[in-house]
Structure formats: C-alpha cells, structure tokens
Amino acid sequence: MKLTQRFSFLLLAVAAFTFIGGCASSANKESTGQYVDDTAITAKVKAAIFKEDTLKSAEINVETFKGAVQLSGFVGTQSDIDRAIQVTQAVGGVRTVKNDMRLK
C-alpha cells in the first residue's frame, strides 16, 4: 500500500513540475501571461495607428514580444514612419519600438 502511495505522490509531483515548467518563459519564448500581455499591447498599438488619420493602418504591421514592439511595412513618407513611432511609444505597456518600416 505504501509503495502505491509513494508512486502516486511521485507521479503527481512530476506532473506538477512539468505543468509549472511549461508556463515559464525563456529568452526565446514567452510565458502564457506575457503572451496575453503582448497580444493586448499589439491590439492597442493597432487601434492607435488606426485612429491616426494621417496613417494607413493596412500598411503597418505590428508585432510584440515581451513589450518590445516591432513596426514593419511599406509607407508613403518619412513623416508617416515618424508619426507611427510616436503613436506606438505613447501606448501603455510598450517598452521599446523597433522600426522596420520602409518607404515605398
């Protein structure tokens, strides 16, 4: 009976550590909470760009990883690039902005 209890406890402990380790982040991967946060930041940045009359939101792609936002795409003018960066920096939760936008 004790052997069965010990085996059950060991199995439960291994399952718990596996679950906890699966939710942890690493340098290349995000935890579940970070993924949700980054998704929210991406949505806020896209909404802010969409609300900006001078920018065409369909031209600008937004990706977020651990609070670092990357903007990419092809835009018409340098002022569009500058404005998109300013709008992005004003969004809460954005830690840094990487500009990969190019002029058409």
Features:
Histidine-containing Protein, Chain: A; 104 residues; 52% helix; alpha+beta; three-stranded mixed beta sheet
Please characterize this protein's 3D structure.
By secondary structure, this protein is of the alpha+beta class. It has one domain (26-103): Histidine-containing Protein, Chain: A, CATH 3.30.1340. 52% of the residues lie in helices and 21% in strands. The chain has 3 helices and 3 strands, in the order H-H-E-E-H-E. It has helices at residues 2-23, 32-51, 78-89; strands spanning 60-65, 68-75, 96-103. The protein has a 3-stranded mixed β-sheet with strand order 1-2-3. The longest helix has 22 residues, at 2-23. It is rod-shaped, with a radius of gyration of 21 Å. It starts with a helix and ends with a strand. The mean pLDDT is 85.
